[in-house]
Amino acid sequence: MDVIFNCPKCDQELAVDSSGAGTEITCPSCGEAIVIPGSESPAARPAVEPAQAEVPGALPVNPIASSAAAKVEMHLKVPVRSAPSESLIEKPLAPLEVAAKDTDKKLRVKTIRHTDCIEVGHDRFDEMVGKFLEKVGESSIVTITPINYTNLDIGTQKLMTEYGVLIVYRG
């Protein structure tokens, strides 16, 4: 049989096996040290009303009143907390892409291909890369990476190897 009692500090209702009467426990709600009181025998309730017990084969007026569930006394309370409860599940960190978007200067990528810098037979690759780097500013540049790539030339139907630069910058 369980001993049901309230914590003297936080008024949390606790139920402990009667064999633990007289021992000390800590309240799971507030952490207060509590001595478990002795078991108290609840007042016995009659299972059936006396008038019905005398009549053989008679059904009880209220079947729930004579059920086993009606004989068990439950003293339940919802714990009330003054402080907000703590979260037991941590929120995952934002992915790097989201973190980069939330900053003042976002990370950006610019690819300059050599074939895009040829105008009327003049190679302007160095000039265009230099202008872009001046526009962005040296302090904003994160990395400059040379790239090589292969593409199919439509006119000659040959694979052509080309180059360019990949610039990562804040802007």
Compact overview of the structure:
The protein is α+β, with helices and mostly antiparallel strands.
Overview of this protein structure:
With 171 residues, the chain is of the alpha+beta class. It has two domains: 2-71, no CATH class; 96-170, no CATH class. The protein has helices at residues 50-54, 68-71, 96-102, 125-136, and strands at residues 2-6, 13-17, 24-26, 33-35, 107-113, 118-119, 122-123, 141-153, 158-170. The protein starts with a strand and ends with a strand. Residues 41-53 have low confidence and may be disordered.
Calculate Rg over CA atoms. 40 Å
Q: What overall geometry do the principal axes of the alpha carbons give?
A: rod-shaped
Structural class: alpha+beta
Quaternary structure classification: single chain
Strand segment tally: 9
* Distance between the amino and carboxyl termini: 72 Å
Q: What share of the residues does DSSP label as strand, in percent?
A: 25-35%
Domain tally: 2
Strand order of the largest sheet: 5-9-8
Average pLDDT, to the nearest integer?
78
Overall helicity: 10-25%
Pick out the low-confidence regions.
Answer: 41-53
